[in-house]
C-alpha cells in the first residue's frame, strides 16, 4: 500500500468517524419536483431548480435547437475559438434583466467568483467577506493575495468598524456578500451595506445565485454575479457590471481566459428560461410563497427566499432525519460541516415553483412528526 493510499484511507476513516464522509448516489430527476433513487419515487426538496425550468419543454427545445445548429461544445476558450452568437445575446439579455450596462458569461458560478475577485484586487488591497459567504467567494478572495477579513454575518456595525480599522492601509477594498445565503436562506441588508461601502470607497460584489428570479428586486451592487444553473435551469455563471469592468475581466479573469466557453445548448437554455421568467411573474412569485407556507406550518421564522433551513445540530442526527424522510418519499439531503458551522447540521429545504401546496404541506407534517421542535 502506497503512502498516498494510506493517507487517503486514514482521512476517509476520520470522516466516517465524524459522520462527515460524502458519497455520490445515482439519482434521476424529472418534472414536477420528482426524483428517483434506488428504485424509489421521491418528491425532491434538494434541488436548486427554483422555477422548475430545467424540465420545461420550451427550455429543452431551445437547447436541442442550439445543439443541432452549433454542436455539442464550444471548442475552446472564447478568446481563442471565438464567441458563438448565443453568448453575446445571453449577455445582453442578462444585463437588461439586471438593469446593468454589460454582462460577461463564465463556465460556472464557481469559475466566475474564482476569476472576478483576483482580477480586481491584489496583494495591497482589502477584502471583507461575510462569514457565511459561499466557498467560491472565499476561494476567489484567497487566490487574489489581498488581505481577507471575515465580517460577522449580516452585521453592519461590524462591517463599518472593520472598514474604519483597515481601509486606510489599503489601495482598494472589496466587500463580498450574497443576496440570498445558500444554506440559511436569509438575505443581506443590501441598501444599508451599499451606503457603508460608498462611504469608504469600497466596491461590493453580490452573489445572486439563489436570488435570481425569486427575490432579486431592489438595489443593485456595482458587481452583480450569479449562476444560470438554478432559477434558469441551465448551467454557467455570469457577472453584470459596467462595460469597462466587463472589458477588463475579458482580458484579466483567468477563469474566463484559460477555460473552454459555455456549450451552446446551455446558453440557449438560459436565454429561453430568462424569457419565461420575465413573461411569467406568477411562476417567479411561487417559490417564496410556498416556502412561507412551509415555515408557517412548522412555526419557523418566515422564509426570506426559496431556501429554508431545518436546524438539527449533530451531523449524525441530520443524516438520520434525512434517511427517515427519504423512507417516507421525500428527498431532503442533510447539510453538514464544513459546508455549515460545527453543531449546525441541517436539512436544507429548497422549494420550487414545480411543487404543489399538498407536497409542501406533506413535507412539513413529516418534519413536524420526525423532528418536533423543543
Automatic annotation (TrEMBL):
One of its GO terms (biological process) is biotin biosynthetic process. Pathway: Cofactor biosynthesis; biotin biosynthesis. Its EC number is 2.3.1.47. It holds the Pfam family Aminotran_1_2. InterPro entries: Aminotrans_II_pyridoxalP_BS (IPR001917), Aminotransferase_I/II_large (IPR004839), AON_synthase_class-II (IPR050087), PyrdxlP-dep_Trfase (IPR015424), PyrdxlP-dep_Trfase_major (IPR015421), PyrdxlP-dep_Trfase_small (IPR015422). Keywords: Biotin biosynthesis, Pyridoxal phosphate, Transferase. GO terms for molecular function: 8-amino-7-oxononanoate synthase activity; pyridoxal phosphate binding. Residues 41-367 form the Aminotransferase class I/classII large domain. Its cofactor is pyridoxal 5'-phosphate. It catalyses: 6-carboxyhexanoyl-[ACP] + L-alanine + H(+) = (8S)-8-amino-7-oxononanoate + holo-[ACP] + CO2. Belongs to the class-II pyridoxal-phosphate-dependent aminotransferase family. BioF subfamily. Homodimer. This is 8-amino-7-oxononanoate synthase. It comes from Methylobacterium soli. The lineage of its organism: Bacteria, Pseudomonadati, Pseudomonadota, Alphaproteobacteria, Hyphomicrobiales.
Amino acid at each position: 500500500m502506497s503512502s498516498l493510499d494510506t493517507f487517503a484511507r486514514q482521512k476517509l476513516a476520520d470522516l466516517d468517524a465524524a459522520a462527515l464522509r460524502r458519497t455520490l448516489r445515482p439519482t434521476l430527476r424529472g418534472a414536477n419536483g420528482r426524483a428517483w433513487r434506488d428504485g424509489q419515487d421521491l418528491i425532491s426538496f434538494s434541488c436548486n431548480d427554483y422555477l422548475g425550468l430545467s424540465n420545461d419543454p420550451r427550455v429543452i427545445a431551445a437547447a436541442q435547437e442550439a445543439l443541432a445548429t452549433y454542436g455539442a461544445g464550444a471548442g475552446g476558450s472564447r478568446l481563442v475559438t471565438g464567441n458563438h452568437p448565443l453568448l453575446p445575446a445571453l449577455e445582453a439579455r442578462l444585463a437588461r434583466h439586471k438593469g446593468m450596462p454589460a454582462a460577461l458569461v463564465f463556465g460556472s458560478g464557481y469559475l466566475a467568483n474564482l476569476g472576478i475577485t483576483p482580477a480586481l484586487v491584489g496583494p495591497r488591497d482589502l477584502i471583507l467577506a461575510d462569514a457565511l459567504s459561499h466557498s467560491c467567494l472565499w476561494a476567489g478572495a484567497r487566490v487574489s493575495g489581498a488581505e481577507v477579513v471575515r465580517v460577522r454575518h449580516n452585521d453592519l456595525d461590524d462591517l463599518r468598524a472593520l472598514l474604519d480599522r483597515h481601509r486606510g492601509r489599503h489601495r482598494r477594498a472589496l466587500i463580498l456578500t450574497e443576496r440570498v445565503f445558500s444554506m440559511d436562506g436569509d438575505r443581506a441588508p443590501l441598501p444599508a451595506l451599499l451606503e457603508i461601502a460608498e462611504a469608504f470607497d469600497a466596491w461590493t460584489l453580490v452573489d445572486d445565485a439563489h436570488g435570481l428570479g425569486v427575490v432579486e428586486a431592489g438595489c443593485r451592487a456595482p458587481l452583480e454575479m450569479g449562476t444560470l444553473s438554478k432559477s434558469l435551469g441551465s448551467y454557467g455563471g455570469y457577472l453584470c457590471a459596467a462595460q469597462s469592468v466587463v472589458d477588463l475581466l475579458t482580458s484579466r479573469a483567468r477563469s474566463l481566459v484559460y477555460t473552454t466557453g459555455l456549450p451552446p445548448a446551455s446558453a440557449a437554455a438560459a436565454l429561453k428560461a430568462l424569457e419565461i421568467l420575465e413573461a411569467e411573474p406568477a411562476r417567479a412569485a411561487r417559490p417564496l410563497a410556498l416556502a412561507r407556507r412551509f415555515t408557517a406550518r412548522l412555526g419557523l421564522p418566515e422564509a426570506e427566499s426559496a431556501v429554508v433551513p431545518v436546524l438539527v445540530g449533530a451531523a449524525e442526527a441530520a443524516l438520520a432525519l434525512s434517511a427517515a424522510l427519504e423512507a417516507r418519499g421525500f428527498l431532503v439531503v442533510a447539510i453538514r460541516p464544513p459546508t455549515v458551522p460545527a453543531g449546525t447540521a441541517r436539512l436544507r429545504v429548497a422549494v420550487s415553483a414545480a411543487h404543489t401546496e399538498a407536497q409542501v404541506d406533506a413535507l412539513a407534517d413529516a418534519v413536524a412528526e420526525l423532528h418536533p421542535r423543543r
